[in-house]
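Recall that a protein's primary structure is simply its ordered list of amino acids. Everything else, from secondary elements to tertiary packing, is in principle encoded there. The following example makes that idea concrete.
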Amino acid sequence: MNTLSLSIKHFSSLSRAPGAVWTEATRRKAPHKPLLLMAVLDLVHRGVITTPFIDVTADLVELNELFNLYWRRVVPLGQTSSIAFPFSRLSREPFWELVPLPGKTITDAVINNTSSVSYLRKYALGAKLDDGLFWVMQSGEGRV
């Protein structure tokens, strides 16, 4: 399977929680991970994110703004979220690895309790995207 096909497979099989609060626009599942990935893809395409490592200090400001923009377009009014929520939970997907701060460990408890950027920054330097996925995001083929 080539890198593009594998990336499509990973994206189409994201683990997403179902819930009554989610509308048909999100296929009745939590939209956090897809919205964050769309924001990452957009910033890679624009040349803002230039490496497969997403730093929770430098890259998060613009990424957060874009995530929130997408969130407001898809999610019913009144529902809120933090970019930290999908940023940490994507580590359960095969293409996203949370990189811990020196001396820290990213455990399930850390992932499950991450709901704010300040909490995320206590444990993680950032996230490392799979190199193949990052290449697909940079290529014209990956943006079709």
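The chain has a mean pLDDT of 88. The CA atoms of residues 93 and 116 lie 20 Å apart.
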